[in-house]
Amino acid sequence: MELVYRSTRSTEKTVTASQAILKGLADDGGLFVPEQLPKLDVDMETLKSMTYQETAYVVMKQFLTDFTEEELKHCIKSAYDEKFDTEEIAPLAKVGDTYHLELFHGATIAFKDMALSILPHLLTTAAKKNHVKNEIVILTATSGDTGKAALAGFADVPGTKIIVFYPKGGVSKVQELQMVTQKGDNTSVVAIHGNFDNAQSGVKEIFEDKELAEELAACGYQFSSANSINIGRLVPQVVYYVYAYAKLLENGEISEGEEINVTVPTGNFGNILAAYYAKQMGVPIAKLICASNENKVLFDFFQTGRYDRNREFVLTSSPSMDILISSNLERLIYTIAGQDAQKNAELMQALKEKGAYEITAEMQEGLKDFAGGYATEAQTKEMIRETYQKTGYVMDTHTAVAAYVCREYKKKNKDAKKALVASTASPYKFAHSVMTAIDEAYSKKDEFELIDELHKISGMEIPAAIEEIRNAPIRHTRECDADQMKKTVKEILGVEV
Ligand SMILES: *Cc1c(COP(=O)(O)O)cnc(C)c1O
């Protein structure tokens, strides 16, 4: 049976999965959502013994119904290979009494690799299926990790170009170096004078610009997105929650049907939405705990039902979560509004115009699977230090936000369920913040000295992604103001300005 996709903002049109992936964003500015969430058609007993790739197939085939078995298996095989430093792809680590699902074993050592290593394959397959002749231009706004993972995924992929916008001064040293040293003739990286929300809004505006789309089409280009607004990002992320549950079962950590809680360090709400989809598919997840840093818009939303971005934007040590407009929340809003596109569109309009909206009491009922929490900068640091001292395990700042929120949730609610924490980045990516959290004395050393120190204290091998940038030449130096993104895109593509 074919699963069709609709925009969260209007109901008339449906598209296939491959068309939704190609377009990224719907014409009306809405996000594509499946008409209904599919159920797993394989039982846990079978899933227990499956590899990551096998699990990926049984999950993704339920969503991407217009891909053939051969196409999908080829995409999966090309994505989850030696680019990952472990055959398990997403291994579990037991830290104290909590299970960390390590999603940072891919090429760019952050969880974005889980989806962005397969997205280029899904997209080029989708282009072929739909007889697209244009070159596809991937436009991406990044808070640090998406950019590099997308660049790595799309570099030198025939028929594609990729342009990444990141907030200058808003990413870690390693994140920036990873992006500006990117190879590939089809890659461009631009630092914007603004924050991530400016970059994301700018990209969305370019997508919604019909005139520009026509101009580009005349030159043989069309846009798509590698941001988590693309359903092709979200679907591969459902896989690891299914896989993690099955592995916990296989390892005897949980018993059949036992419910677990999942805590996810959240920015754009993509990763936690994937966990929610996994729950809808039948994975026994009780609470989905949304962890924020000091940009705690989502925490406040889960407390009060009011989403309000009118507040100071805080630069934190977990930059990939420094976000005030969590795009993927729209998919949840649409769902809890009873798939009412009109209602959702009204709320999103209010967000655009006033920066805030409030959901009804009835809609709040639909949020009962979720809980929110946040960690301050001091609490995040303390969590890293304390965990290292107690267990020897070193985690990155984003993961520490989640680990803190997970622990506090447990205490406050006296909830003894087994806890899974999505571990979203390698500590090497945020060496400065991680090492100074462990000992303030490290603050005098530079980034690469700290990387070597981190290796000494943790015994974790230094990832290839880090070695690569130590001496790599800088290839991208372009900068622009946040209101000049459209002009910059035209310049890069050589389209008349
Ligand atoms: C992107 C990112 C997040 C936030 O994930 P969302 O899907 O945007 O909520 C958290 N941690 C790290 C390391 C990331 O790169």
From TrEMBL:
Pfam families noted in UniProt: PALP, Thr_synth_N
A molecular function (GO) term: threonine synthase activity
Alphabetical UniProt keywords: Lyase, Pyridoxal phosphate
InterPro entries, sorted: Thr_synth_N, Thr_synth_N_sf, Thr_synthase-like, TrpB-like_PALP, TrpB-like_PALP_sf
Domain (Tryptophan synthase beta chain-like PALP): residue spans on this chain: 101-418
Residue intervals of the Threonine synthase N-terminal domain: 5-80
Cofactor: pyridoxal 5'-phosphate
Regions crossing the membrane: none
EC supergroup of this enzyme: lyase
Enzyme Commission number, as recorded: 4.2.3.1
Keyword Translocase: no
UniProt family annotation: Belongs to the threonine synthase family.
Protein name per the record: Threonine synthase
Source organism of the structure: Faecalicatena acetigenes
Gene: thrC
